[in-house]
Amino acid sequence: MKMVAHILIVLLSIISTLVYAYDPSPLQDICVADLNSEVLVNGFICKAVEEVTANDFFLSGFDKPSNTMNKVGFNVTNALVNQIPGLNTLGISLVLLDFAPYGENPPHTHPRATEILTVLEGKLYVGFVLSNQNNNTLISKVLNKGDVFVFPIGLIHFQANIGHTPAVAISALSSQNPGVITIANSVFGSKPPISDDILAKAFQVDKKVIDYLQAQFWMVAHILVVVLFSITSSLVYAYDPSPLQDICVADLNSKVLVNGFICKAVEEVTANDFFLSGFDKPSNTMNKVGFNVTNALVNQIPGLNTLGVSLVRLDFAPYGENPPHTHPRATEILTVLEGKLYVGFVLSNQNNNTLISKVLNKGDVFVFPIGLIHFQANIGHTPAVAVAALSSQNPGVITIANSVFGSKPPISDDILAKAFQVDKKVIDYLQAQFWMMKMVAHILVVVLFSITSSLVYAYDPSPLQDICVADLNSKVLVNGFICKAVEEVTANDFFLSGFDKPSNTMNKVGFNVTNALVNQIPGLNTLGISLVRLDFAPYGENPPHTHPRATEILTVLEGKLYVGFVLSNQNNNTLISKVLNKGDVFVFPIGLIHFQANIGHTPAVAISALSSQNPGVITIANSVFGSKPPISDDILAKAFQVDKKVIDYLQAQFWVNA
Ligand SMILES: *[C@@H]1O[C@H](CO)[C@@H](O)[C@H](O)[C@H]1NC(C)=O
Ligand SMILES: *[C@@H]1O[C@H](CO)[C@@H](O)[C@H](O)[C@H]1NC(C)=O
């Protein structure tokens, strides 16, 4: 069989250059797949938000072995969009791989996903083959328990159990529906078969060899097809959908829910679909925060659908403010038309929650990067006006105060007390503000979620070559990292060991993270995926936070976790939460505030995959109350509708990023 293997490797090179279609980016908080709908779209139709439950983001039994009694001694358990409808539009998924002793996952490729694998049990020999351009170099390695390895998007790869005991691995894939192309099946087992003339020439062998191979694969193919095609269902790439036609004017009256909106017939489109008037008229700022928004989003200008941009007009009363908030799906660029604004945004934990702030005057322009918490306050005694452009047709707004203290149902005060390092009474007081001050919340919701309509995302860049292993020592700053020369690349660039070792959770929150991001695995550069191991002490917690650049999919390895995420203002800050046990899987959509808490009296362990090489973390408490320098207590007092003393007390706490 050595010859056959050799032939396969030689021929695989044929398959090397795939063209990628990336998954669309989300155009709303969530778009849970309606798996029963007859309407065919790219991905799936969305279920109505009111019908969504935590179970749409959940799967159990991921600790149960599948049956590997087949010819290849290998089987897959899927956690793709078909199993977890909440994954729709989020660009990530998970599979559990079971290998019998000496079983193998034969050479295959995922057209739409990079794969990142963690060995839970046993010893695997794994590898991938670079494309023709890189002389079909094989990059391979033996992996043991706790080892992590990356298989770049589109490249042919395999995994084989080289031990005499079963092996188990979990792989995350950067698509809701990664697809699988098993080489042997595709080349020698297609139906109808590829002509043996063509294959004989391609493989430079006698037709008899081809006929022999084809005969083999007709027998084996069925098993492989059953085993492997099941994977085919759903990888994720989270990019904004590119327009696939000149225009797709939103049909705002259609009852069909899709990612974004159904298009109107081109014949019915008029100039008014691209038009809005009255953007010179101030809106009413007679409310508690002295602020209001006029929208020019896809709801107001249907022609914006699929085009990834929108506009808002911001009116500030004297000393009015747009309280701390974040746009899960857009970068914002603001121009001051009148007055004087104090504005700022807070960098993520990775950058020590540094506050970047500035006073802006008429004609000044300022940028607020996607996903980061920011605010604007009028510091003059006359009204101020600004126009902001947002990089999505439906940017979304998450107002921090509303989302954290005013969610429905409320986030447990135990969890918030630990997160904010204060007594539960302070939390109860803050939560009471938001329940009593429904009117304020209402204003904020009306004001802000109107923005929610339509942002465009900047996601990780797509790979433009087989691999671009990060040169972590280069002084040249680019988006991501400079690539190492292909000749200098080794399997270790795609590898990390020790992912089976717990980290130290002896800290205030009883929680710690082990990273497998681009800094730990340079081979992840440009591939849009990464992994973290989460360790929880008994009753430890990962406090409310958000990832500006990634959806997260979590698997519980040990223990019992209470987890949840909060929808944005547009969806009334609804809390979606659930208790997870060993083997359970749960999804946290990109940009939304979420948490995990160990509710057991033993340690808990989970592995999470994230749909970015560098997802970023913004811990809410740290970012809002612990930024350096601090956000003015005037601004926070107004935002949280409490006395400045409460803010000063919160700011005085000692903030540590887990
Ligand atoms: C894979 O495992 C499942 C669950 O154990 C089993 O139902 C299925 O038949 C197996 N498939 C193959 C091809 O062995
Ligand atoms: C591939 O092979 C060609 C011809 O032998 C050589 O010139 C080139 O440097 C090789 N490329 C790599 C990336 O090894």
Polypeptide structure, described:
The chain is of the alpha+beta class and 658 residues long. The strands form six sheets. It has a six-stranded antiparallel β-sheet, with no helix packed on it. Strands 2-3-10-5-8-22 form a six-stranded antiparallel β-sheet, with no helix packed on it. Helix 6 packs across helix 7 (424-436). The structure holds 2-acetamido-2-deoxy-beta-D-glucopyranose (2 copies). The site of one 2-acetamido-2-deoxy-beta-D-glucopyranose has 4 residues, from loops. One of its GO terms (molecular function) is manganese ion binding. Residues 1-21 form the signal peptide.
SSE topology sketch:
Layout: H1 2-12, E1 58-59, E2 74-79, E3 93-99, E4 104-109, E5 115-121, E6 124-129, E7 138-143, E8 148-151, E9 156-161, E10 167-173, E11 181-182, H2 183-188, H3 196-203, H4 207-229, E12 291-296, E13 310-316, E14 321-326, E15 332-338, E16 341-346, E17 355-360, E18 365-368, E19 373-378, E20 384-390, E21 398-399, H5 400-405, H6 413-420, H7 424-436, H8 438-449, E22 495-496, E23 511-516, E24 530-536, E25 541-546, E26 552-558, E27 561-566, E28 575-580, E29 585-588, E30 593-598, E31 604-610, E32 618-619, H9 620-625, H10 633-640, H11 644-652
Antiparallel strand pairs: 1-29, 2-3, 3-10, 4-9, 4-11, 5-8, 5-10, 6-7, 6-9, 8-22, 12-13, 13-20, 14-19, 14-21, 15-18, 15-20, 16-17, 16-19, 23-24, 24-31, 25-30, 25-32, 26-29, 26-31, 27-28, 27-30
Helix pairs in contact: 3-4, 6-7, 7-8, 10-11
The protein binds 2-acetamido-2-deoxy-beta-D-glucopyranose (2 copies).
One 2-acetamido-2-deoxy-beta-D-glucopyranose (NAG) is lined by residues 66-67, 70, 75, 223, 226-227.
